Amino acid sequence: MTQTTAPARGPAPPRAGADVTGRTPWPLAVPAGIAILFLLLPLAAMILRAPWRDLPQILVDTQAVAALRLSLETATTATALSILFGVPLAWVLAKAHFPGHSLVRALVTLPLVLPPVVGGVALLLAFGRLGLVGQYLDRWFGVQLPFSTAGVVIAETFVAMPFLVVTVEGALRSADLGLEEAAATLGSRRFATFRRVTLPLVAPSLVAGSVLCWARALGEFGATITFAGNLPGVTQTMPLAVYQAFETDPPSAVALSLVLLAVSVTVLALLRDRWLNPGTPL
Amino acid sequence: MTSKFSRLHRAGTPRAGTPLTGEPSDPSAGQRHTSTASARALQADVGIDRGAFRLDVQVEVEPGQILAILGPNGSGKTTLLRALAGLLAVARGRVTVGGQVWDDAGAGIFVPTVDRAVGLVFQDYRLFPHLSVLDNVAFAPRARGATRTAARTKAIAVLHQLGLSDLTDRKPGALSGGQAQRVALARALASDPQLLLLDEPLAALDARTRLEIRAELRRHLATFTGPALLVTHDPLEAMVLADRILVLEGGRAVQEGTPSAVARRPATEYVARLVGLNLYTGTITDRATRRIELDSGGALYAAGHDPSDTDARILPLNGTRMLVALSPTAISLFTHQPDAGSARNVWSGRIAGMELLTDRIRIAVDGQPDALVDITPAAVAELELHAGQRVWLTAKATEVTAYPDPGHSPVIL
User: Fold this and answer.
1) Same domain, B182 and B250
2) Which of A107, B182, B188, B360 is most solvent-facing, going by the fewest CB within 10 Å?
3) Tell me: the pLDDT tens digits for A102-137?
4) Contacts of B114 in chain A (CB under 8 A)
5) A chain contacts of residue B126, beta-carbon cutoff 8 Å
6) What b/e string do you get for A186-195 counting C-beta neighbours within 10 Å, with b at 16 or more?
7) Is B105 domain-assigned?
8) Who among B114, B116, B124 is closest to A188 (CB)?
């Protein structure tokens, strides 16, 4: 912005090639600055107050590695399930016409706004040992989802899948219908067109939706603790470990939080360059 | 639109009431029933309602022939094209290509687009942005079951044929408009269509590229052996590219004929304006002098005829409704009443407007009748012409052509 060589005589005239639309007006600049501070300050506090010296020992004592591994595994599995079922769902919501379409759409995206704890309760009523479906799973197959690692995946998928569905549906909705028409004139049937034309075109949105979904699953707390409990090594994911550590030994909670922060930043950085830049050509 | 869609029974037998031809020109065409045309022709009778708009048009295109559908926006030409491609079903009528029924509202037959061997070049090309030129062109063979290698071999051959070999690896985003147009044509041709449809193929190009691509397109279209149909609002495009022109207005065919015939004898004001002629309707009042009283006021002597015109020697009876065509370049303009001259048609009016064309100025004159007059910029400067000025117009009777008004039925020239 400022140039050291420029004489300090009021605002310098815009140079050739510079943006001449003007400076950001202060009613926008000031709140924006406050917002940036508000978002960054807690992170800064965490980094400043972290028990850096004892970090390795704390991570060993709290079984952080096991919790982290469980978190990464369940979040990734939940994301895979969300893609497998969520993308077809997004296609149906975007392209198919059937009675009750808008109702289904509203219900499917309900977990977006539903408090996760409520989601956990609902999951228990459905898949718990005495639940609507759960009793038969138990009686017929001997499968018990609550308080198992599979339960963690179910809880995370329930909460995170709508993020993927909504993102991909939006992309499919705005995808160029003309290209699908063109594919039809070239003899391509609907599923082939989906696979060879539509899906590649919405790939950036699919990746963005998957990242959102994965991040949401990684951070999932309420539904998980309600439905799957907090058993170290089985259902205790990182957020649960942070919560538990905070009750007994706050410094180790900070240490665990740092690990989650590092994972999130790493994923964001890895994906950002390739996929999340707006305007990146396919 | 009919809701009675059903798949075509492919190797169907000729249906009752369908005439059979004695000599199918292409034995591979499967079914051998057509009416009078050869077995690979397009025969379509398309009736579609879209809200208040009603499209009813018959087209017939022989193999190797190119028919241009010329019409203003909203005339139904794109609707017709979409019906032929199967993107719309006809509400009335029937579409057959190469003897196969593609759509028949009466019989409840509708072959969906994917099962029609139709090549459609879209106005906006619609190339797949994520695929290379090669894979775009290989798309149709691949979709119809060819292996990856076979599809690419086919695509390479078509690209080579159209002189596009060096674009193979590019993505559509890296193509110029003209290149994209050629690739779109290659992609359509690579599907081995029985019917080729082009929707305003040159409309998206700038004027300079259009000129270049037009000549080339003409050459490539000539190699296509099936019936081809081209939709355009540009008369020049229709004249250069097509063997025949069908003029569509308000969902109806108002004229059909060879380009030169349509240009010489426009049937409606729209066509006349397109081809740059003054067109008047009137009634012949004196057979001997071929004097025609115009509906808009005034009268013209029309002694012109073209040598190819077989009807020219037949003099219409007095009272016959006539169309009168007069080229803007055939009219002379004077700022004072001209002395006696050889021109039989002399009338006066006032300048209503001037428009600069590429090499001349077109002057609109309000008078009896109104007329467009083309003169050189030098003449405009020398005569110091301005709007509202009183001028006199003259035209030799031999420059004025008159022909019977077909009324509301389409003119077949």
Assistant:
1) yes
2) A107
3) 898 888 888 888 999 999 999 999 998 888 988 888
4) 184, 187-189
5) 176, 178-179, 181-182
6) bbbeeeebbe
7) yes
8) B114
